[in-house]
């Protein structure tokens, strides 16, 4: 999986702006495409973004700097998401974007429930995996875990989800 699509980036900006986000967590910095989209939608906000690969974050930092984003608005943390996320504060974030290791997506949702304030948004990119999630014959590990993740979100009484056909699928869920 690469960066989010242009349509998904536009949706991230729209969502962040719509809820007047001030604090967001991004799980999977990559080269900064979604970081920039989120920051575009939260002009007064701060993004905390996690990635295992420092060189990805260096590339992201260059993208953000080139776009005129001050360093203080993007806290880039190099590390494994499941080690970093438990250190972030409870109910302190307006939006969490899940876009890192697909095999850990269920755990990312569990962590997001703790991190999001009431009314905050969970966003999962690549949620339809270019049609593989809907293909009952596809039993790839990534695809099976994404189905389990979507089911966990749908079953949660704390989340109100909608699955959007943007990019290769984006799940947005509001935290009760
Ligand atoms: C699909 S890319 C992210 C793309 C980025 N969100 C964008 O749209 O520009 C996934 C990223 O997750 C990172 N990643 C993979 N496993 C991870 C983990 N366990 N913890 C944190 N980051 C991880 C990879 O290094 C990669 O940069």
Automatic annotation (TrEMBL):
Pfam families membership: Methyltransf_3
Single GO MF annotation: S-adenosylmethionine-dependent methyltransferase activity
Top-level taxon in the UniProt lineage: Bacteria
Transmembrane segment boundaries: none
GO-annotated biological processes: methylation
Keywords, ordered alphabetically: Methyltransferase, S-adenosyl-L-methionine, Transferase
Keyword hit for S-adenosyl-L-methionine: yes
Protein's recorded name: Methyltransferase domain-containing protein
Organismal lineage: Bacteria, Bacillati, Actinomycetota, Actinomycetes, Propionibacteriales
